[in-house]
């Protein structure tokens, strides 16, 4: 009787495990089996590729998992991975991750907390979270393969999965060589040929011993994959295929050809604009993404020439799709979601780039109600809508600020919470603005940009939005006068609350400026260095005001003597001194801006103007190069665009 019961429970265990495997990709059985029986069930489960839940898997030792894998399991056909610096959720901060990855790998151990490169795995070795783009590829693969054949893992566990049967390893590349705006600049401050952490981490994957041993096909995709082609490193890293573009629409056919080694397939696969999927063609991801990223929009339409999303058709994901993605993340342990967008104000946008506030309110309310989600992070916004209708921020603040995990003592929120969306301010020069990014200020004109930035910042700060603002130094044709205009804007922002991050111009692939030359650190003018280090003086004072400035006051001159002067010349000397906290009265004759006697105010900054009258009435006015997403249905049908209904 006892034996019969044991056999029955074992059979039930295996049966329920199989069912769970095929239906959900997970396995869990605790009802009938004894501890010993459970072990047999789950080791058998491993052989059938089931994914074991954490609480169940804790009953087994690593050795048992290993045994099962090595002797009973074939290696999966497809392994997906991403570098630790891109997959890590360290501090739940995208910009801290971004800047950490900009540090030269040589000095990484000194400046990077080892936690910043840590990722987490399930007991079976699969990654708990990876970049959202990789999750999307996994989801598309899981339409045609089982979970046993497709494994997403971190580099630490690559050797547990890549084996003789593995046909393909797909690598997500956000910034594989570190030649994007931020990393390219900051890593070079310590020397021209230093490799940033991002690049070093990518290298660890492509040179991993198991990759060399089993020689699976290597496919690289993601927003920074183009860097490998531009730097001509495909042969060196033995990359078989590089995919550049949105993949969902063409995935099935493309992957079949890749797996079959179709000789007619180009090595560098550039997906055209016509291959961009509709939101209906983009599935809900099957597993959790790093930072709990949930896409709410794709594409922009404001038309900035240096920007990739500018060329993508603007799309908003249906609320149901967004909530399902949030639920997937929460179910697998995420307590925070990041609502990813090129501009949050484009979500369900109305004609003429009007912000749809009710839709945004509903979005935040619904996401906050997802069981398990405690905090919500925003990604990018533009500043012009904040000025056009300040009630947008007023109405959204109760849905955004209290749900942020970020704190700052200057916040008036009861818990000192702040929102820190990313905003591209780019330049203070109306001339450069007019040439490269005039749609960014819509409905305002280039000459109104300074007022728009100041008014927008005042409104944002008043509601505890302390944004992460980026600037681009060295846009093609930038003159001394242009840099002075940017410095003037920066001076006007001296009491603003937020982060100001200067980057150097890099011609990104798939932008209208991809053929332009990069700005070079070595060619930076004294004014550009002043701009760069004045931004960092602000950041130091705002985010590290309570910390001792002793290390900067004496460490920075040391850097100048030992390295900075040799690498960049004497032009960086006085800007560096300002950054280090030396009083401006010693440098006022050497620098453009003069902060002598100035002390940072804790009050809300005041913009010089209260009302700014929009310079444009419609996105279709002459000279604008914007795509109004609400008009696309007319454009697609070949008909004349419907009359704009906005102001
Ligand atoms: S506003 Fe300009 S820079 Fe920002 S996403 Fe849109 S096109 Fe790109």
TL;DR of this structure?
Helix content is 38%, strand content 9%.
Topology, element by element:
Layout: H1 2-24, H2 35-47, H3 54-57, H4 62-72, E1 78-82, H5 84-87, H6 94-100, H7 105-111, H8 132-141, E2 150-153, H9 158-161, E3 168-172, H10 181-188, H11 197-206, H12 209-214, E4 217-221, H13 226-230, E5 241-244, H14 251-260, E6 268-270, E7 293-295, E8 297-298, E9 315-316, H15 319-331, E10 336-340, H16 357-368, E11 375-378, H17 384-388, H18 391-400, E12 422-426, H19 430-436, H20 449-462, E13 468-473, H21 480-492, E14 499-504, H22 526-543, H23 550-568, H24 573-580, H25 632-636
Parallel strand pairs: 1-2, 1-3, 3-4, 4-5, 5-6, 7-10, 10-11, 12-13, 13-14
Antiparallel strand pairs: 8-9
Helix pairs in contact: 1-2, 2-4, 16-18, 21-22, 22-24, 23-24
The structure holds iron/sulfur cluster.
How would you sum up this structure, described in words?
The chain has 647 residues and is of the alpha/beta class. It folds into three domains: 70 residues, no CATH class; 202 residues, Rossmann fold, CATH 3.40.50; 256 residues, pyruvate-formate lyase- activating enzyme (Alpha-Beta Horseshoe), CATH 3.80.30. Helix content is 38%, strand content 9%. Helix 2 crosses helix 4. The longest helix has 23 residues. It starts with a helix and ends in an 11-residue tail after the last helix. The relative contact order is 0.08. The N terminus and C terminus are likely disordered. Bound molecules: iron/sulfur cluster. The site of iron/sulfur cluster has 13 residues, from loops.
